[in-house]
Amino acid sequence: MKGKTKxxxxxxxxxxxxxxxxxxxxxxxxxxRVAVAGVSREGVFSYGGSLVLSLQAMGYEGRIFPVNPxxxxxxxxxxxxxxxxxxxxxxxxxxAVGAAAVPDTLEACRKKGAAGAEIxxxxxxxxxxxxxxxxxxxxxxxxxxxxxxxxxxxxxxxCPGSGLTFLPNPDLSRQSGPVAFLSQSGGMxxxxxxxxKWMGVRFSKMVSFGNGADLRETELLRYLLxxxxxxxxxxxxxxxxxxxxxxxxxxxxxxKKPVVVLKGGLSRAGGRALISHTASLGGDRVIxxxxxxxxxxxxxxxxxxMAQACLAFSMLPPRACKGLSVIGGGGALGIxxxxxxxxxxxxxxxxxxxLKKNIENLLPRSGASAANPVDVANPYTPPETVNGxxxxxxxxxxxxxxxxxxxxxxxxxxxxxxxxxVGETIPFREFAEALEDAAKETGKPVVAVLSNAKRGLEDLDxxxxxxxxxxxxxxxxxxxxxxxxxALRALAHVNAYYTRRGQGWDE
Amino acid sequence: MKGKTKxxxxxxxxxxxxxxxxxxxxxxxxxxRVAVAGVSREGVFSYGGSLVLSLQAMGYEGRIFPVNPxxxxxxxxxxxxxxxxxxxxxxxxxxAVGAAAVPDTLEACRKKGAAGAEIxxxxxxxxxxxxxxxxxxxxxxxxxxxxxxxxxxxxxxxCPGSGLTFLPNPDLSRQSGPVAFLSQSGGMxxxxxxxxKWMGVRFSKMVSFGNGADLRETELLRYLLxxxxxxxxxxxxxxxxxxxxxxxxxxxxxxKKPVVVLKGGLSRAGGRALISHTASLGGDRVIxxxxxxxxxxxxxxxxxxMAQACLAFSMLPPRACKGLSVIGGGGALGIxxxxxxxxxxxxxxxxxxxLKKNIENLLPRSGASAANPVDVANPYTPPETVNGxxxxxxxxxxxxxxxxxxxxxxxxxxxxxxxxxVGETIPFREFAEALEDAAKETGKPVVAVLSNAKRGLEDLDxxxxxxxxxxxxxxxxxxxxxxxxxALRALAHVNAYYTRRGQGWDE
Lengths: 507, 507
Hints:
The structure is a homodimer.
Chain A: E1 15-16, E2 22-23, H1 25-29, E3 33-37, H2 47-57, E4 63-67, E5 72-74, E6 77-79, E7 92-95, H3 102-111, E8 116-119, H4 130-144, E9 148-150, E10 156-158, E11 176-183, H5 186-199, E12 203-208, H6 217-226, E13 232-237, H7 243-256, E14 259-263, H8 268-278, H9 285-295, E15 298-300, H10 303-315, E16 324-328, H11 331-343, H12 353-360, E17 374-375, H13 383-393, E18 401-407, H14 411-418, H15 422-425, H16 428-442, E19 446-451, H17 460-475, E20 480-481, H18 484-502
Parallel strand pairs in A: 3-4, 3-7, 7-8, 8-9, 11-12, 11-13, 13-14, 14-15, 16-17, 16-18, 18-19, 19-20
Antiparallel strand pairs in A: 1-2, 5-6, 10-12
């Protein structure tokens, strides 16, 4: 954790909650003392036990106080019988006890000075029963007395900078980054955290807030908008508590940072399903679309699109890139790139004759094309040629960004012919350097598409090499997408956001 | 090859070419004697050499006659100096010599009785030069005298039933299936063949026809429409030779078999790029959309969508499935499924109270939901429970098909806790059996979604297990998609096609 937990993180220490007094977010996201209620001695198979192990695996450096009425020891730590027995004040409580025991536990945590508590347990308003609703009402009452609650029925907080993690995820990335994610759904949050790890999306913090009895979308959005650790805000909402206030916060946030929103439950059947999921009210497809657009937020349709948009926002410069060059091997790929680009409002301008001629000098005589898209014809085009083409193409003033498409599966044949492992045949580190160098020298970002058509059991070495290549590209600041279409769609979101911001947000 | 090449395949032996005399397709797709022109003794690194090796690797059981002016031996075969020196008549010629030498070679093949020739070489009309165009003109003249030509500037034929394969692909699937693919682009054809292998799309034959100097989209479409080996026709076109005739053939074909079309070059820039690719003229986005719809063809926007549509058409029964049940772990997934289903015009009807109650009896008390979508809450729900839910849900008359969503990455935690490899922890064979059994017992197809959020270098074992699971599901007749959205989109294509066909194709 590189000592990041030793002092409070940058960002606002306190913000005013919506009439709920002050919230000490730094003690919630970067706690030095965490109580975990619900840890039995058979802990490996218990919720609370998994949480303790996950915190340890994530490198959380503060103190952990496991709590269970039976006492004992777990994973090198003394188990306290009651919250009250913990010898120190606590910053954050993680509550994973049965629903009926939650209110008393929460109250005890409040008395122990906790700034916040995440309630992992379910069995509240999402059940639709009077008992569930009553228990959730009690949670609200206690929260109003001065402890901020995340949940219930949630996965809580993932914050790589402090080592907090979602329940079943001791192996999320420990690297921090600019993307924050707020999610009503724990599954969505956990999936995004897992996907982000290999895709290269790095997070400042994630909050899965489930039923959102206390802290939820609007208030957390206002916090993130001021949070110095967060540069991009992503949001999964099913329903919102106070539409008007949410819209105001969204507008405010989008004026300062890109905000990417996935709205679940847009359909009638989806609306029905979400009532049993987090007890929210849904909304209409058209209304949501126009609300999000008016607020200046970026709307996406699924988690893949969200992750890709966040990758683009976090790795590309904060400006629109309207004109593109596309370089790859294979004419149909270039044609497809043009078709998608036009659909997404992106221009792929034809190169002037002199530039075409210069690029032609780097290409094989037969089968290649130096127009934009550039068809290098040979899938084994060496890194220095790729670098040369990128440097030349960047000379065209209309080019703001370049996309390089790699088809690594073609190296299978080269590897076979040469009798070498495919991982040694693909010069992916040199390609990564070639792209980084071109981007740095020309000031125009380069995006890589790593497409792999061979993904069966006999091609796992190619799958592995593609993943290694992805990491090498990401390490050098080159964002990676699996399909050209994905790259263009993400770029279209970046363009739409910064174009709108540049126009001063007039509605 | 299970002796498949020993006799000519079923299907029409001869069909009338468009004014070009008779075409013996069975000698072209299932040849017993193939000449490969352009095989040097340094063959491993030559085009022609790779082709010979690929044919051998694919298990082609007929005779191969390598040809090169220098003579010698290659891979256990005598190299003939000239086509004329081959001691027997040939069925098919594969021509991979320099462009200038192509016409003479082709004429020699014609005289040797070849029914067809695939010309892999480039350097013809796609170059845009008078020389290139003149050479292609010569090819047309020779073809008109009685040898059918595929190409030039193409990858030729992939036909798993006979062992013919594209150039750089000795490792394409050797299993035959119902999907035929015609493609102007060799890259697209090769990518589809590679993707199909692990996705479970099996091919009767693929033809990459490149510049299409002789045999091309319209004539091949008419052949496939009668071909007994082909049940689904897929098509990648950039431009067509004779729009009216193509449209007529498309209409005819779509009335008999599902036809899936990917049109490249819909944009202005895409149109520009395709001129240098295969020397075709593009077309307008709106015109193509309406033409394809009128013809009753299914239009897709990229190769992924095409492959997924072909998987659905080849594995699902030939009818529309309007009402669905969706079963999975996690509320947000169900909500997303509903949102996409509505978008694609598919219904996910809410279950009646008694059915809900019966399903509830199989689910955990907390966090689950027995409405449709069914949220099983626990990602480790055992196969027999999954089977039970599927059997119950099929009892609702409105359900035509069921989607089961698996999130195998959750098993990582189980595997860690149990100290076992993740591959042993996921009962994927039992899941496959549970789904196959439910489909067979109820007569309602079951589709699996195998979603894996953990795909980084430390999770390659999970990637491998997911691939093994995919094959186990496919082996039991259960089509597999990576995302629920993909499954629903493919299903929407199936529904649109059969609904239209059921309505008697009135325009």
